[in-house]
Amino acid sequence: MVTRSLFLAVAVVVLALRTHGYHETLDPLPGKARSLNGHDVAIVLIPEPEVSLVDYKDFGRAIQLLFPLRLYVSLVDISSENTVTLDNLPILIAECTKTLHESGMHSGSAVFLATHGQLGHLAADYARAVPDTLRGLILLGAVLPKRVNVIAFPLPVLTIVGEIDGVTRITRVSETLHAMTRSVKFDPELAIQSPLIILEGSNHDVFITGSLPFSLYQQDIEAEVPKRVAMETAANFTALFLAHVLQEPEVFVKTAATEFKKAFEAAQNMTAPIELLREATINNLKSYWVKSAQKWLSGLTGKQSAQIEVDSYVEKSQDGLPPTMIYEHGVNHIVTFSEVIRYADKGKAEDDGSLPQAPDEIAAKMLGPERIQAALKNATRTYNYTCRDLNYASFMTAYHTATERARIRFDGYHRGVIFQPDIVTNSEALWESTHLKFTVHASKLYVTSIAYKTPMDDDLGVESGLFFCKLLPPDRAMEWIYVDSILRDMSF
């Protein structure tokens, strides 16, 4: 890890060579009291790249207005840097600190580091390296990296993200919240010390007065809540966070505890459908979704469906065993094997919140209805399902699992979803190498499954009567409903 001493040494050397640039300081509002220990409080805010620091003035002033103590806000000028890195970030922060002192901030002040959007992970790495120089980290439209668990983070962390932020998707926020929920079981105070806030109906530009750069604007979603209202809400949560970390004033500390608990529960409720379908796709190396698909594929209904039990295992490669059926204790046990796949050729960053978080397909190896019927003898198929039918079921499951607000929003955009007939391959190898087709044309989503079937033939042995499908993961269908279908530019 990069150490504090190295950061400070670099900052001191470079500061001797260059002056502070165009960093802007918002001085404390008149009439505000100092903290009980006489120290000042400051937020150093790093903008979203290509967003003018001037666009954060209203947000900074809103925090100062709502926070009861003297508060400086330093807006970092990153416009002179081609890329902000761990090499130049310490210098920029040191420059801002120097400017704050020149504006009257006392030494030993409580400094909070805030950042908006894409530099969130970088700011988190910096804060981890020098936790004794900061009192907390504030992530706006950003979340901690997946490799970092909030319970082990050396500082309190405030996370505020819009529900319909297209740059940091709610599906990515859901993963962070799920990890945090597990940690809260061991440390219930974590939800108050490091609160996570989802602003209902808000997008990525809620913290700025102007517009996002064109590429981010296109990647974002149209807000449903007036920016002025949402910005004030975000500023209020930020003011409460400062007060809770500093443990003063007492009335703010108590209010913060109450509001952060409510916000955490609201975030859990908002993301519960996403997490439910993520676990349906894969959980503990099993897939409930493939288990359901195999039961549907059997064509059995009512009491006849009770003659089969299904276990569906998830493997990490396609080189596993074929599906099989074992008769035991009066029940036919079907064992299926699947692979949950993310396409490597999409160039997906490991932790990019702007990209789809759900897997791209489930390569499900199942038994065909003929094989099952042959084993059951007297069973009668009611339906003959195709892979297309199973993918339609995935979408409808996602739609009906989504929150009412998400369904209404999705319906309002009038995005069509077309399920095309299956493409049936003539070999298992071709099936394995051909992706589920998930394409957008003229604001409509087209889904085409890839199928592979083998005939009922004793000479094929365990390879007889197989039915393979490239399935649409239900959490990917959910992500389409929650995010992709309502982006300003659906090509992202």
TrEMBL record:
Alphabetized InterPro entries for the sequence: AB_hydrolase_fold
Record's protein name: Uncharacterized protein LOC106077795
The keyword Signal belongs to this UniProt entry's keyword annotation: yes
UniProt keywords, alphabetically: Signal
Signal peptide annotation: 1-21
Gene3D superfamilies registered for this protein in UniProt: alpha/beta hydrolase
